[in-house]
Amino acid sequence: MDRLRGEFIDIIEWTDDSRDTMVWRFPRYENEIKMGAKLIVRESQVAVFVNMGRIADVFAPGMHELQTGNLPILSTLQGWKYGFHSPFKAEVYFVTTRQFTDMKWGTQNPVTVRDPEFGMVRLRAFGGYAARVTDPAKLLNELAGTDPQFRTEEVEEYLRQLIVGKLGTLLGSSGIPMLDLAARQSELGDRLAKMLSDELMASHGIAIPKFIIENISLPPEVEQAIDARSRMGIIGNLDNYARMQAADAVRDAANNPGGAGEGVGLGLGMAAGQQMAQAFTPQQPQQPQQPQQPQQAYAPAAPAPGGAAVPPPLPGQQQYQWHVAVDGQQQGPYDHATFSGHIRSGAVRSGMLAWREGMESWQPVEQIPELAPLFRATPPPLPPQA
């Protein structure tokens, strides 16, 4: 029956009902084709004739009547003369030229990359890409061979290995810091698409028109370093740090309702609310304050430029500018009143190092004579309640 069917069928075509077939071989009994048969090649397809393992003629989309005139290579290979009408033997492969957009990739093992800031970092990544056949002859010769139905899954593992190798090379040579990878994933994807296409088109006849990096996973220690740096950016200003500490205290008090810290949390919450309100409320012009007359008979200082009357320092008092170390970074300078306020709010705590002009070295704040009374001003705990 197959032999009879092969003798009488004179239409060669392929209706692709799959989404992953790259190459399909037309089934024909003993590969016999009638001269004058109709070849139908649909859009996004190419038909390739193969004779004795050698690529012969390639047909673009359209309807073709097979004659010696449009089979020049096959005619030469088989030694046909003009007007040859006998059946001939050849394999017909249909190659899909549309994009395959459901391709996935991922790193099974971490990729080691050297970062100028964090040193050697092990990354994981995954995403998707599109592939398209640009040279059917190369694809048949290098990958598909005589496979009657060559699917994307048969080339996906090879492409994944190639992608992982190129990804490590690109990340190592791009100079992009770990902190900026997430913001530049699209750029990296475009560069990888070009790198892969240049190599695959030359060797296998496949292009990568689109490459998507969905996620780059950093190791936990690098994520912790990024979180710490982000926190440092938030607390770089001691005023902001004090607000954040107050907000944390409110949150902790809310998580422990009815406890002894409820009143403390309420007080800190009110203070934090006042600070936030001040931070987000536009400052109104203030009337210059009139200096209070000192009790002792000191001559008043001349008014400051601009009309703002600022009282001078009291005689005999040194106006220090304080510097403090916060998480290994120097903050300041702060005048004595502002710095004292930070101590009372808890932004500056015992154990922190401070320095002012005239001190030989940094010292713990609670050991500096001018500041020590501020730490002893904390009231003792309440006595046990009945």
Automatic annotation (TrEMBL):
Domain SPFH, first and last residues per copy = 23-234
What is a single Pfam family found in this protein's UniProt entry? GYF_2
**UniProt xrefs under Gene3D superfamilies:** Band 7 domain
Annotated ranges, domain GYF:
322-371
Q: Give me the segments passing through the membrane.
A: none
User: Which parts of this chain are annotated as the region Disordered?
Assistant: 275-316
Q: Where is the composition biased (Low complexity)?
A: 275-309
Protein's recorded name:
Antifreeze protein
